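Journal club prep, notes for RB
We'll compare a predicted complex against what the paper describes. Inputs for the iron/sulfur cluster case:
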Amino acid sequence: MVVKDMMPNFELFQPTQVKDALAILDSYGKDAWKMAGGYDSLVWFKERIKRPKAVIDLSGIAEMQGIKETADGVEIGALTTLTDIENNSIIKTKYRLLADAVAKVASPQIRHAGTIGGNASQDARCLYYRYGLPCYRAGGTTCYADTPEGINREHALFESDRCVAVTPSDGAPALVALDAKYVLRSSSGERVVGSEEFYVGPKIDITHMTSTKPEEILVAIRIPNTWAGSHFYFEKVADRNVWDFALVNVAAALKVQNGVIRESRIACGGVSAVPRRLTAVEEILKGQPMNETVAKLAGNSATRGARPLNYNGFKIPLMANLVTRAVRDAKA
Ligand SMILES: Cc1cc2nc3c(=O)[nH]c(=O)nc-3n(C[C@H](O)[C@H](O)[C@H](O)COP(=O)(O)OP(=O)(O)OC[C@H]3O[C@@H](n4cnc5c(N)ncnc54)[C@H](O)[C@@H]3O)c2cc1C
Ligand code: SF4
């Protein structure tokens, strides 16, 4: 019998400096778990499905908190809460897309403690995996969702490889659309990667959603000012309006001049393991007027190549409609 609602034992560390957290990571390796707000982590522990030997509570590290403007954009500490992002004046004025996206996460309580680093790094919500079944993503040899009887209405339309789970994050597509960079630090140095390298699908690593290595900590997320003040649009459709993960969401940044779209970055969540950047749509939009006809063309193009499972075919028109609305209704 699996005993639930009771945490297994682990060693708890509460460092106040990144270097101390990294030293603990180095000594425990894969047996260590990094925890920020804990909204993803604690559920895993409570259900006794993940059992790390050491938990490193990062929340006391001041260096990883807060939002500051830099010469070429804005830097957001990975521990900055979703509420702080939603209410920050720099974000609201220049990068409203991110404020709009994180405002749609879960509930006010979760946004008060949940961090942007944790939101971008959170694990898949596939019910079979979360229940603790030994599927591919859990290191096993089967997928329970991609079967004729599998419950897969929340699963992927694109680029699945054995695992058909999707990214559940509302923050991540907005970060992709804003061309965010992720600052990953280990005791041997720092690397800064873009979204295409940070988020990983099952072809690259079926047991992780990001390329963060066990010995690394995501210390900050940088948003360049390239897209500051663009036309933005975020929309999420879920089964319930609050406290629910997206079935599909869309985040769009468009540079519009005299009614003509000069450039765009558009990403959808809930349709593949990583936030899906719609590069073909972005190409189509270059130099086009921002109107209903072009928006519909964008929506229809967005779903090209989609491969629905038994129960998630509804996501195709849903995604097309969201992209159409994003292109038609984005506002500066
Ligand atoms: C009931 C419920 C509803 C939810 N609804 C939504 C929703 O609608 N939309 C949405 O986007 N999310 C939703 N979530 C997820 C929630 O927003 C995220 O789990 C939360 O933002 C994660 O942040 P955290 O700081 O609590 O993460 P944690 O639980 O602390 O960490 C999450 C993961 O990220 C890793 N991690 C955290 N910080 C770092 C770091 N700095 N460096 C490296 N790794 C790190 C942890 O190891 C862990 O694997 C929901 C969660 C719950 C419980
Ligand atoms: S979709 Fe992925 S996470 Fe879900 S059961 Fe299949 S392999 Fe596991």
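Talking point for the session: The two ends are 55 Å apart (CA to CA).
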